[in-house]
Amino acid sequence: MSRSETACAQQTLHSVIESFNSYARSAKMFTSGELAQKPKTPKYRKKNGLAVVSYPARWVKLVNGMLKFPLGKQVKAWFGIDHFLLPMPSNLDFNQIKELRFVPRNNCFYLEFVYEQPTLEKGQPIAENFLGIDPGLNNWLTCVSNVGKAFIVDGKKVKSRMAMV
Fold first, then answer.
1. Which of 14, 32, 63, 109 has the fewest Cβ atoms nearer than 10 Å?
2. φ, ψ for residue 133 (rounded to 5)?
3. What digits encode the pLDDT tens for the residues 1-23?
4. pTM (2 decimals)?
C-alpha cells in the first residue's frame, strides 16, 4: 500500500472515530436530559455501495491551478495512471484547505473542501439607530425603528404586477 493509499485509509478511520465519538457524546447528553431526541448510531455503507474517499490536504498538490490527486501503486499497476487532476476553484485558498472529500451522491461524485472557518469577532453596531423589517404577504414590508418611526410597504401592487409577468 502506498503512502497516499495509507493516508486515505487513515482518514476514513478518523472519520469513523469522529462519528462514533460524536454519537457517544450525544447519547450521554440524551441520558442526562440535555438532548430531546435520542441520537441514532452511525450507519455503515450498504453492500456494494460507494464510500466517501478523503484525502488529507498534505497529499494533494496544486500544480498550475490544478489539484493533483495521487492514486497509489496498485492503481498504477492496474490502469497505468498514478494521479488525476481537477481544477482548483478560484474562490478558495489552497493553503487553508485541511481535507478534500469525494462524496458519492445522486449518481454523481461531489468534491468537498474542508477548511477551518476563522472565528469572527463580535462587532459593535455602526450606528445608534436600528430598523426592524418584517416581510409579509399583503403587507410586503412592515418596518419599525428604535426612534419611534414606523411604516408599511403595501405588497398588493407588487403581487399584482408579478401576476401580469
1. 32
2. -120, 125
3. 556 566 667 777 777 788 888 88
4. 0.55
